[in-house]
Design goal:
Two copies of one chain form a homodimer. In chain A, 40% of the residues lie in helices and 22% in strands. Chain A binds a DNA duplex (30 and 30 nucleotides) through helix 6.
Chain lengths: 229, 229
Amino acid sequence: MSDCLACIIRNRAICAGLNPPELALLGRMGRRQRIKAGHTLLWEGDEAPVVANVIEGVLKLVAATSDGREQIVGLVFPSDFIGRPFGGESAYSVSAMSDAELCVFNRDLFDEFAADHPDLQQRLLLRTLDELDRARHWMLLLGRKSASEKVASFLIEMADRLTDGGRGAGAGARFALPFGRQQIADILGLTIETTSRQLTKMRADGMIGLPSRREIVINDPAALHEMAG
Amino acid sequence: MSDCLACIIRNRAICAGLNPPELALLGRMGRRQRIKAGHTLLWEGDEAPVVANVIEGVLKLVAATSDGREQIVGLVFPSDFIGRPFGGESAYSVSAMSDAELCVFNRDLFDEFAADHPDLQQRLLLRTLDELDRARHWMLLLGRKSASEKVASFLIEMADRLTDGGRGAGAGARFALPFGRQQIADILGLTIETTSRQLTKMRADGMIGLPSRREIVINDPAALHEMAG
DNA sequence: CGCTGCTTTGATTCGTATCAATAGCAGTGG
DNA sequence: CCACTGCTATTGATACGAATCAAAGCAGCG
């Protein structure tokens, strides 16, 4: 059982809008779970018995070919929702990119609860529609953009999602990526070498700064947007 | 006003499950609209005042870069749903690939109706979740697969969707694509030349037959699946 | 200090895009 | 029925970008 009223993502997650009794009921269904960076919560193709809210940390959704090539098909941040309600097996695996904390529900129980709470279901629908738009936008990047455009687009999106308060990619914006070069490559459909070369080049051109392996500073947002296409 | 009870997609569209009075109400809100092949229903970035069910024909969802490169990010078949309920502007344009017939609703009215009908909203959620899975699966193709793998995967998916009764890519399966080479290229994130070369090669290898420009015959499903990766 | 794993840099290869020309098909009018 | 036109698809030659292969650099950590 979790104390939903004290939950730090309470106002941003799908739980927002539930009244205290409903929240208490949901709270009894859920349990807090910590997961270490690198560990996998759900495997592609497996029956997925749980859904969850992300309280802290960043997770990735990964699809893979039979010969082991990987593509990251989604990123999950705090207050985002994980899993496939009313569904069967997971279409991709879910792993933690950083240490993370989740609020996990048994899927059947959650489905039942959702069926009784149309407003929750609507919030789920809105989120899913947003995710779909985001995924489709990413398809344009994967299918049609060059390596430099991909990396620039990636930095802009990360600046939006990771700068505190979503101030976005303004001049001087600084943020730490929760993952390394290989993961960036897996997000962009590139190799680690190409990704590294593009970042190095952008630093050489003065567009961005790379104060440490995982930190990014945006020096020239206009040039970055230009480059993103 | 439309006669929903006589509608040929009535049992497969989101309307399925509504009782006759509800159906009559929805019918009064909707209007039938024909749209010619090549015409565009919604433009990327525009305020999207309508949602719709597809009754007949195939439409595409297209995202484009500022310099005009295009990526098809979704295909819409009969009984599928178009548009962004509870949303603002369209994230991509929607155009007809063949002559099509739609059942169009004013978005605000539809949203209102949906809010009062949780079961309809749930069917919408299920559809959206399926679409999201499909989109993410396509991201793997766009980001990580070679040209030959892309074309093979495409043929398998089209066989599933286009053979009558969804018999799929069995040996001898035959179907007509509702679009030409350029569109295939836009779906796969390739050029028309590469697409054409791959198809020609597959025909030369005896894997498939190409009896006419738009027709495909699957000769060797196993080899095709092998090639799709 | 010397591992170990991640990242950068370099040299080369390979796949797909691009550029260019030809071929095939569908529709139109003589 | 056949020549003409416009469009779509195929085929060929070449260029370019990103992958691959290989090695060196760099940080964190026992």
